[in-house]
Every structure is written in structure tokens, then in C-alpha cells.
Write a structure and sequence with these properties.
With 206 residues, the protein is α/β, with parallel strands linked by helices. It has one domain. Helix content is 20%, strand content 50%. Strands 1-3-5-7-9-11 form a six-stranded parallel beta sheet, covered by helices on one side. The protein has a five-stranded parallel beta sheet with strand order 2-4-6-8-10, with no helix packed on it. Helix 1 packs across helix 2 and helix 2 runs antiparallel to helix 3.
């Protein structure tokens, strides 16, 4: 499952997705969001059958003065379930970007695992970014982990690329693409992947 959002209406939009995963089912999803809008996104995956599995990847770019926030949740309501989320974000100009990652293993659903990673790269001083991990674990015999980080772009990488003849915008676009590529690789639809690449090039050139 791949979802690409490219809204250019300069307005506020809400995006949501609720998925139930039954016994022995395996779902892998990729969400890419490059809109010129304020965005509120909510993505909920409910593992309701034994040995159900979900892997979710999110990529988001916030530029200009747009404010974007996302809640991605994994709710385990069966034994031996597996959930994994990886959220990647890039912020430039005066953009705002927030990730809330939620993993919840309910009582009685042992041998389950929930893992999450959220990372945001910041280009400019006036950006605002937060990555908030939440784990609600009501059972002992489980595995759970989280990692969250927000940091500035590596200036040495930017300088190196510029020293090889790239413009600053080209270098920023290449670094951004490399940062978001784990999500792009999940997209198996060539039309969607091409739209992502073209839109990212346009956004980074703005």
C-alpha cells in the first residue's frame, strides 16, 4: 500500500487511514506527504488476529510556513503480533513538523513486539520540529522499543557536494532524497514514485 499526498491548495487538510489486520495477515504501507498545506494526519493500525504483522513507513516535508503533524499508532489486540513504524521528516524555511508515534500492547497479548523510529532533519534555524514516542505496554512477555531524533542537516555534507560543483539547492535536494529514500523504496508503483521525485525536486527548489 502506497499513498502520496501532493495538495497545493494552500489550505488545511486532514488525512486519515484506519487498518485492521487479521490472523496471519501481513501489511506493508508507505505514506509520502509533500503538500503545500497545513496537514493533520492520523494513521491507525489495529492488529486483531494472532501473528498479524504491520510495517509502516512515513515521509514528510514541511516548508514555507506550513504546519504539519502526524499521529501513527500500532494497537496490538492479539498474541504474537508484530508492528514496526519508521517516520522520516525534513523541515525547511519556517516549517513546523511533529511526529507522534504510539505503540500499545494490551494485556494478555503476549509474545508481541512493537517498534518505532522517528527522525527529523532540520535545514533552517526558524524551523520547529518534534518527535514524540509513546509506548503503552500492559503485558510482560513482549518486546518494545523506540528511537526519536531531531537534528540539523550536516553542513559538511552540504559543503562537500557544493565543492563537487552542485548548487546549494541541488545538494539540499540530494540530501533530502537520501534521507527519505527508505520510504521511497517501498513504493512499487513507478507512476507514484516518479510523481514523488518530481514534486520533491520542485519543493526543494522553491
Amino acid at each position: 500500500l502506497a499513498m502520496l499526498t501532493l495538495d497545493e491548495s494552500d489550505s488545511s487538510i486532514k488525512v486519515s487511514d484506519e487498518v485492521e489486520i487479521d490472523r496471519f495477515a501481513n501489511v506493508e504501507s508507505a505514506y509520502a506527504e509533500l503538500s503545500l498545506s497545513d496537514v493533520t494526519g492520523k494513521y491507525a493500525y489495529h492488529l486483531i488476529g494472532e501473528e498479524a504483522s504491520a510495517k509502516i513507513k512515513m515521509a514528510a516535508l514541511s516548508s514555507g510556513q506550513y504546519k504539519k503533524s502526524y499521529e501513527v499508532s500500532l494497537l496490538h489486540s492479539a498474541k504474537v503480533t508484530y508492528g514496526e513504524m519508521n517516520n522520516y521528516g525534513v523541515v525547511k524555511d519556517q516549517g513546523h513538523l511533529f511526529f507522534d508515534g504510539i505503540g500499545h500492547i494490551e494485556k494478555g497479548y503476549s509474545q508481541s513486539a512493537t517498534h518505532q523510529t522517528s527522525r527529523i532533519m532540520v535545514f533552517d534555524k526558524e524551523c520547529v520540529a518534534k518527535a514524540n514516542p509513546y509506548l503503552f505496554i500492559d503485558e510482560y512477555d513482549v518486546k518494545a522499543s523506540h528511537a526519536a531524533g531531531v537534528g540539523r542537516m550536516d553542513e559538511e555534507h552540504l559543503f562537500y557536494l557544493q565543492s563537487r560543483g552542485m548548487t546549494k539547492n541541488d545538494a539540499m535536494r540530494l540530501i533530502t532524497y537520501g534521507y527519505l529514500i527508505p520510504v521511497v523504496d517501498v513504493i512499487d508503483n513507478e507512476t507514484v514514485k516518479q510523481a514523488f521525485n518530481e514534486t520533491l525536486e520542485k519543493r526543494m527548489g522553491d
